[in-house]
# Entry
Amino acid sequence: MAKRLESNLSRREREMMDIIYKAGSATAAEVLEAMASPPSYSAVRATLRVLEEKGHLKHKQEGRRYVYVPTVPAIRARQSALRHLMKTFFDGSVHSTVAALLDLQATKMSKEDLDRLGSMIDEARKEGR
# Structure
């Protein structure tokens, strides 16, 4: 059964998960160093334990350090977050979501990006999605 990643994380927990996803794995000290407004080291360790209890992280011991890794692959976490974003802000509409992304990137879309998107749309049509 897929975890509902988007629904049960605080802002600080989400920030820590983002740091660990970006790095692939991280110790409490590395998470602390990467945070924008870090709490105490003990608060980071406590939050990492909570994330582990919630099933979002697991750890492996390397010497005296715990190295934390996500339990859900990044692609599944991205899909879950995107589904939540679409449902929350775009009433589940793929069209509205993509339109907003295109508006956001209007001045930054290269010809290659547009061609790639066009190819993805063509492929989705062929597959009946």
In short: Residues 1-6 have pLDDT under 50 and may be disordered. The longest strand covers residues 57-62. Strands lie at 57-62, 65-70.
